[in-house]
């Protein structure tokens, strides 16, 4: 027995296979398209592999069992990540619409999935580009004979190193004090840091210039942003394996022994660079690599905001794409100023922890459930056969129908219960602490729960909210139609 929810009017909302073929021929020269398949593949790789692989994944791996963490990670990658990615690509290609239009075509009550996706993309874009700004700051400082984080600065009395640096390390001091100028509490903003402000503006300017013409510019940029990181990583791998103690480093990778936190890329890796000969060269290569990784991922994130904005018709139709892109980037740049305050690193960790976790799980579950049980898995299989010539094999069938939705639902419930029951803490850099230079865990202020609700709750609630709004509009239209018919009938009877 096949489980599928009723979905009246679907055939009228989507194009048939024959109509798609005809549309492709008619719009062959008008639609924006990639110059070749390589551009498309590189764009997908750049979006899937980003800064998180260097900046976030390693410390998560270390804090959850070291190398043992890779076992559940790989299992979920095969049973969850890849099936969902395949499903999103396939349904988007089939319906030839952006997020809002696509889910509205499947069912008008599912438009909220597209809105939630846009909310997640916006949240991630706000802080992701701040990290690119940090990378630019380190890159600019790499063009020196002696890297500024390789040794502690001298104090004002010229009697020795600065106390805070001497008590910690030169790389810690450069990151927490000379780069972030971090405050000991999230409540203490510390003001804007002008050097980070310049880098922040520079990062958004570069992004705007790269996406101003859509795939016409991003398609060419990915040749560099999606390939250079792998060249640099290969160079680092070869160089690392030739160093003394490289085997000990590999063993340490699979042994959990502490957490480097979100500053991993700016502390551990930078310290390793100082141990290498010609360290400025390695530093330049490393931060160019991070810049390319971050920029290629931002192409996808910001497009996930721009396209729904155009569908929602927030700006006048007469506005060119360049203007819409410029206003959107300017808005994100201004909101992102919160991350370049003295407390900015705490805010960034908050956004990263809650803005890109629960909402992503909810969106992913709703997407898969909607395709399989509302759009119809049999219809979806026929669509894929139409596009590539054969239906998906048994692995995809069992993953889409059962395994992936169940896994996502269980993870969502477990994550939600865990976060609700645990005490919310954040790690701070506090020179006045007795445990310094160890990061001190402090309790979030009570008002931070409202921020967490905005980050995690509002995108999720956007899905049922949009469905309720659509239902109310439909009911109102039905009442107006009934009233109109009743009035016409009354008028006809009166005439007779």
UniProtKB/TrEMBL annotation:
Any GO CC annotation of this UniProt entry: brush border membrane
One GO MF term: neutral L-amino acid transmembrane transporter activity
Superkingdom, natural source: Eukaryota
Keywords: Membrane, Metal-binding, Sodium, Symport, Transmembrane, Transmembrane helix, Transport
Positions of Na(+) 2 binding: 49
Predominant subcellular localization, coarse grouping: membrane
UniProt-listed GO biological process terms: sodium ion transmembrane transport
Pfam families tied to this protein: SNF
Keyword Membrane: yes
Ligand binding (Na(+) 1): 46, 53, 293, 297
Topology of this chain in the membrane: Multi-pass membrane protein
Localization: Membrane
Transmembrane intervals: 40-57, 69-91, 112-140, 194-215, 222-242, 281-302, 323-342, 354-377, 398-417, 447-469
Family of this protein: Belongs to the sodium:neurotransmitter symporter (SNF) (TC 2.A.22) family.
Protein name: Transporter
């Amino acid at each position: 027995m096949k489980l599928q929810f009723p979905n009246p009017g679907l055939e009228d909302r989507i194009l048939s296979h024959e109509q798609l073929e005809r549309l492709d021929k008619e719009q062959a020269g008008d639609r924006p398209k990639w110059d070749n398949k390589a551009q498309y593949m590189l764009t997908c790789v750049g979006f899937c592999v980003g800064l998180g692989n260097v900046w976030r994944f390693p410390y998560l791996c270390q804090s959850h069992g070291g190398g043992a963490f890779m076992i559940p990670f790989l299992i979920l990658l095969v049973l969850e990540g890849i099936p969902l990615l395949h499903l999103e690509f396939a349904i988007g290609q089939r319906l030839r619409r952006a997020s809002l239009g696509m889910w509205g075509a499947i069912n008008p009550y599912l438009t909220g999935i597209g809105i939630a996706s846009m909310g997640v993309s916006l949240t991630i874009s706000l802080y992701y580009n701040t990290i690119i700004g940090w990378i630019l700051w380190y890159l600019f400082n790499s063009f020196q004979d002696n890297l500024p984080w390789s040794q502690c600065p001298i104090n004002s009395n010229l009697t020795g190193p600065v106390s805070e640096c001497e008590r910690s390390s030169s790389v810690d001091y450069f990151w927490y004090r000379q780069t972030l100028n971090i405050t000991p509490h999230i409540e203490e903003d510390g003001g804007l840091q002008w050097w980070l402000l310049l880098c922040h503006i520079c990062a958004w300017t570069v992004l705007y210039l790269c996406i101003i013409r859509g795939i016409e510019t991003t398609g060419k940029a990915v040749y560099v942003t999606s390939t250079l990181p792998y060249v640099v990583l290969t160079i680092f791998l070869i160089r690392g394996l030739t160093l003394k103690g490289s085997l000990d480093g590999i063993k340490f990778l699979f042994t959990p022994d502490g957490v480097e936190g979100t500053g991993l890329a700016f502390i551990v890796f930078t310290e390793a660079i100082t141990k290498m000969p010609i360290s400025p060269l390695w530093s330049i290569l490393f931060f160019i690599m991070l810049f390319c990784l971050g920029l290629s991922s931002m192409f996808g994130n910001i497009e996930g905001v721009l396209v729904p904005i155009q569908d929602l018709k927030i700006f006048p139709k007469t506005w060119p794409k360049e203007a819409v892109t410029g206003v959107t980037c300017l808005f994100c740049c201004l909101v992102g100023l919160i991350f370049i305050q003295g407390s900015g690193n705490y805010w960034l960790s908050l956004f990263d922890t809650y803005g890109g976790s629960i909402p992503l799980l909810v969106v992913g579950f709703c997407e898969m459930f909607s395709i399989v049980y509302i759009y119809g898995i049999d219809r979806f299989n026929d669509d894929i056969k139409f596009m590539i010539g054969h239906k998906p094999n048994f692995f995809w069938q069992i993953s889409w129908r059962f395994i992936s939705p169940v896994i996502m639902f269980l993870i969502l419930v477990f994550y939600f219960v865990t976060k609700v029951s645990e005490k919310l803490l954040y790690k701070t850099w506090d020179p006045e602490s007795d445990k310094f230079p160890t990061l001190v865990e402090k309790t979030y202020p009570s008002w931070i729960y409202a921020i967490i609700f905005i980050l995690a709750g509002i995108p999720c609630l956007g899905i049922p909210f949009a469905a309720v709004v659509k239902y109310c509009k439909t009911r109102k239209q039905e009442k107006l139609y009934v009233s109109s018919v009743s009035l016409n009938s009354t008028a006809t009877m009166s005439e007779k």
